[in-house]
Specification:
- With about 100 residues, the chain is mostly helical.
- Helices cover about 55% and strands about 0% of the residues.
- The protein has five helices and no strands.
- It is globular, with a radius of gyration of 13 Å.
């Protein structure tokens, strides 16, 4: 997903309806994936040219988490590709990956 696509997705109410809640899951907080999406937007906005020298260690660590999450969940859940309204698909989008485009 592009920075604009991800930023737009994260503003949608449906982006908040899937994933694990931070801090215990009482349903009132931001999900881990939604928070990850916000971090991805920040990383992409501060380095729009994707110059490898401009990423700091925290950026690289987070992007490795994103790649691992998407790879793991795409391998496990074919439903995300078939049903854009599934929790799996919404969760992957929070992590910056639109399964409908892969």
């Amino acid at each position: 997903m592009s920075t604009d696509e991800l930023e737009s997705w994260l503003k949608e109410e449906s982006s908040e309806s899937s994933g694990w809640q931070k801090g215990g899951g009482d349903g009132d907080g931001e999900t881990i994936g939604h928070e990850s999406g916000r971090k991805i937007v920040t990383i992409l906005q501060k380095n729009p040219g994707k110059d490898p020298e401009k990423y700091d260690d925290e950026d690289i660590q987070h992007m490795r988490r994103v790649v691992a999450y998407c790879k793991r969940h795409l391998a496990q859940e074919e439903k995300a590709k078939k049903d854009p309204e599934s929790k799996s698909a919404k969760s992957l989008q929070n992590w910056g990956h639109n399964p409908q485009k892969s």
